[in-house]
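Hey, can you fold this one?
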Amino acid sequence: MSSEMAIPSWIKAKEFVNLLSNHVKDFKAIQKFKVCPALAPGETYATVMLKVHIDCLLTTGQVNNFTLMLKVPHNNDLYRNEMVKWHMFVTEAGMYRQIIPAFEEMYRSKGVPVRFGAKSYDLPTINKEYILLEDLTRRGFRNVKRQNCLDMDHCRSVLKKIAQLHAASAVWVEKNGIFSDLFSRGMVREEGKVLLGGMFNSGLQHLLKTTQQMKSCEKFYPELKKYADTFMVEIFKQTARDDNSFNVLNHGDCWSNNIMFQYGDQGELKETYFVDLQLPSYGSPAQDLLYFILSSAQLDLKIKHFDEMIRYYHENLIANLKLLGYSKPLPYLRDIHQMILKGSIWAMITVLITTAAVLCDTTDSATVDNFVSDSEDSQEFKQLLFSNERFKRHWEVVLPWLYYRGVLEV
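Sure. Predicted structure:
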């Protein structure tokens, strides 16, 4: 991704002057302004993440370096014709400016400080799609290298934060009614069926090819093959919201690169924040739970300690529902497990669009076009995704688990 391709022409120093005047003490003028891509290929797909570097001249004569994270859309036909249907920027802006602050205030009112993510900023003179955020790295936040996945301490920290998010959303709905479509529809929606169908069907073919070549998985191949043939029909059935069940606002894209961690002086984990709030989904908590654990937990944890992690999530969910005054019947642990079985298609969605990408080595071919299209370059990229040895080690553990839980039955 070259700077010329990634950086829109509207991003000028003058647009940031008012913001800096309000947020940088003793600000006088912008001395230097630079924008560059913030992430390597393969670290993000749906949008372009830029880093804004500003040298601020202060009234004291000193120069203060200030950085921001700026998310913008891809400048291509794929975004303009298909991805725009997800309304990701207006959704994420609403999450940062309305929904998340409301959730945080709910905890503050109970005397418990909970933060879910970065501060967001506005550029009032700009009428473009963008999300502008504080640079969390300035406060010591960072991602864990995605290929390494997360150990139990990190997984528990994320599951606790997911439980806090879910609990706040359930109480919010009890008081205010169901979220608007903007915040509730997530990634699986009818208007995106063409894009989803191409992405999933192509991924399934490469997954089947890899599975067929793995001696340890030959027993499961026939059932996986039959399952693949019905996948696009089942995806809309199994992800549909059940309004008679316990529902929450899911993060919707909860994998390791969308989670940042802050550490103390001794390397201890202090805080966990979410980023990329562009695909929230109101429905079963099974979505976030399956998506996070199967995409981002270390190999020796994601199946062997799956039930343990679900219990930890449930304990935190119940504690936070009680804290926030949830008045409806509290979901039992067995209820959460039943939701996970009922929404088990999220496991395969995760494998197809996230787990393989998490475990892939960094490559220039890791682009959103190659991820969703059917071009020759796309096929080569997907072959790389699903045939790499790291992915196969995870798949030969996950596939039997899916098989014996009945996930692949059609």
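The two ends are 42 Å apart (CA to CA). Let me know if you want another pass with a different chain boundary.
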